[in-house]
Design goal:
By secondary structure, the chain is α/β, with parallel strands linked by helices. It has ten helices and eleven strands. The strands form three sheets. It has a six-stranded parallel sheet with strand order 1-11-8-7-5-6. It has a three-stranded parallel sheet with strand order 3-2-4, with helices on both faces. The protein has a two-stranded antiparallel sheet with strand order 9-10. Strand 9 and strand 10 form a beta hairpin. The chain binds NADP nicotinamide-adenine-dinucleotide phosphate.
């Protein structure tokens, strides 16, 4: 069996075009321009690339973007007061603080400081709590992107054995919660593995859908999966540089070997990554529409604005 390649780039492209149309309508019909503020502290090269990609996506879509680059010695209190200012800024509907932050800044305090209505990363405990109990909320971008990938590829999650490797707050735990929800892109039986899991291969071999969010290149090998598995590879690992000095990336899955056994698999790059960015844009648009509805509920202009 050779796997169908699930192209995140293609699926994200379709969502992006729909969003572009929606944003232009929001501007024309409602005078509403969604706005995203991105804060980068320090000069981590990977973070710089991610922030650059987000800015480019905003420009393409017509989202107002404000990028704030701060030196690595920025104090926590300076960062918190910037967030408080952005919380009050009516032009900004989404605030993203690029992680990781320098060690002297408490990441949790920063996440708590963001207005949950502007938390387009979906990391604030209010949004995490709503997600867990199945209420509408701003969903974390990578897990939400994975759901969309599965849905758009026609992959059935209802009743499926889903095995997740990795239990981080940004990927593993939220995808666990989303897969458990009583709705079509959920209803799965979910197992989550980590470094204390006794026999990792025992679990991965049972998976109908295997989601790898480990951060170790090619950690999932051919002998760890069953024939016909659907593999979602979240990992982005820099394993060297090419002759042009560009990073060579590898996922957490041994793509070449596993694709011979899998029914479907996401590549790295071009799989989960593009979905993460487009879901961030979608969250920003959603946050803008919700802010508009909240602020002008009685006004005619926003009366027919639909929010999810
Ligand atoms: P993380 O916070 O480092 O978490 C890694 C998880 O993998 C931990 O739960 C860890 O277990 C588990 N793990 C590590 N080695 C393992 C092993 N040998 N066996 C079983 N479990 C093991 O990483 P993350 O933030 O979730 O990110 C994971 C990967 O996804 C990274 O490569 C990251 O770059 C990538 N990523 C990609 C996107 C995207 O948009 N494409 C977005 C986010 C992350 P313990 O908890 O026991 O330590």
């Amino acid at each position: 069996m050779t796997a169908k390649i699930i192209s995140g780039a293609e699926i994200a492209g379709k969502i992006r075009e729909d969003l572009k149309k929606e944003i232009s309508e929001l501007k024309e019909k409602h005078g509403l321009t969604p706005g995203l503020a991105t804060i980068l502290v320090g000069d981590d090269p990977a973070s710089k690339i991610y922030v650059g990609q987000k800015k480019k996506a905003c420009e393409y879509l017509g989202i107002y973007s404000k990028q704030v680059d701060l030196p690595s010695e920025t104090t926590e209190s300076a960062l918190l007061s910037l967030i408080r200012e952005l919380n009050k800024d009516a032009k900004i509907h989404g605030i993203l603080v690029q992680l990781p932050l320098p060690e002297h800044i408490n990441q949790q305090r920063v996440i708590y400081a963001i207005d949950p209505d502007k938390d387009v990363d979906g990391f604030h405990p209010v949004n995490v709590g709503k997600m867990v109990i199945g209420e509408k909320s701003l969903l974390p971008c990578t897990p939400h992107g994975i759901l969309e990938l599965l849905l758009s590829s026609g992959i059935q999650t209802q009743g499926a054995e889903v095995v997740i490797v990795g239990r981080s707050n940004i990927v593993g735990k939220p995808i666990l919660n989303l897969m458990l929800q009583k709705r079509p892109a959920g209803n799965a039986t979910v197992t989550i593995c980590h470094t204390m899991t006794k026999d990792l291969a025992f679990h991965t071999k049972r998976a109908d859908i295997l989601i790898a969010a480990i951060g170790r290149p090619k950690a999932i090998t051919r002998d760890m999966v069953k024939e016909g598995v659907v593999v979602i590879d979240v990992g982005v690992n820099r394993i060297g540089t090419n002759s042009e000095g560009k990073a060579i990336l590898a996922g957490d899955v041994d793509f070449e070997a596993v694709k011979e056994k899998a029914a479907a698999i996401t590549p790295v790059p071009g799989g989960v990554g593009p979905m993460t960015i487009v879901m961030l844009m979608k969250n920003t648009v959603e946050a803008a529409k919700r802010a508009e509805v909240r602020g002008q509920r009685s006004e005619v202009g926003s009366a027919n604005l639909k929010v999810n």
